Each structure stands twice: as C-alpha cells, then as structure tokens.
Amino acid sequence: MNRRRGFTIIELMVALVVVAILAVVAAPAFGEYFAAQRVKSAAEELLTDLQFARLESVQKNADITLTMNSSGYTITRGAATVKTVTLGSGTTVSAGSTMSAVFNAVRATANVNNGPVTIANGGTSRTLRVGVNTMGRVTICSPSGSFKGYDAC
User: Fold this and answer.
1) Which of 23, 62, 77, 149 has the fewest C-beta atoms under 10 angstroms from its C-beta?
2) Cβ contact 94:57 at 8 Å
3) Which tens digit of pLDDT belongs to each residue from 20-43?
C-alpha cells in the first residue's frame, strides 16, 4: 500500500488560524515591551552621557554642562557644543525637563539644578528617574519600583 505523507490543506488552515489568534493576543504586550525598552534606552544613554560629561570635565580641565529640555539634552564646554541628543519616538522628559548639571573640572563634582530627570513613554506606565548627586555620582531608579532590574526610588 502506498500512503502519502504530509498535511492536508485543512490541517494547514487550522494551524494558520491558531497562529493568527496567538499573534493578535500577543500584540498589545509587545507594544508595552517596546515602549519600556525605549524608556530604558533613553535613561541608560543619559546616564552614560552624564558620566562622559564628568570625565570630560576632568580630562579637558574645563567645566562641562549638560542641559535638559523637553525633547533631549545638550552637552557643552564653554560656548562649544560637545554633543546634542534628541529623545526617540514617544519618549519624553516628564520631570526635571529644565535640569542642568555643571561638572567641576577640579573635583569632578556636580552642581545640579532642577533635577532629577524622569523619563517616560506614552506606550507604558513605567518610568525611570536619572539623578546626579553633588559628588557627581549618576544613578537610575524606578519611581514606582515596577521596572525590573532597577531599584525603587
């Protein structure tokens, strides 16, 4: 007897319908995940740039200023712009949007006004807070404690 192996068209259609239903159910969770990753990425980049500004102030023996605005931030040395960053899609600064941090060239300490900065994204309720203390140490924490991998503020 010669039996053919494989799937029938009905079996393939049923499998396709099941995959489509699973994709529709999972789509909102992916939106939340990607929005949270945008918040995390923006906070980590700000942390790195604050650490860079502190190091740059010591290396160049000049005060370095990081100034926030609602759409991003700028790092300057005197009148020269060192770096300008624009926040990504849907990511906003919800608190501390006018923060400025001036890193002292001699001691690498920071003079911070209107900080810390809270970074948010409309696609998620989770936020991260980036702060600088007077010794120049930069930290990230989760105001609600719901962001996995970060301490609660």
Assistant:
1) 149
2) no
3) 998 888 777 778 888 889 999 999
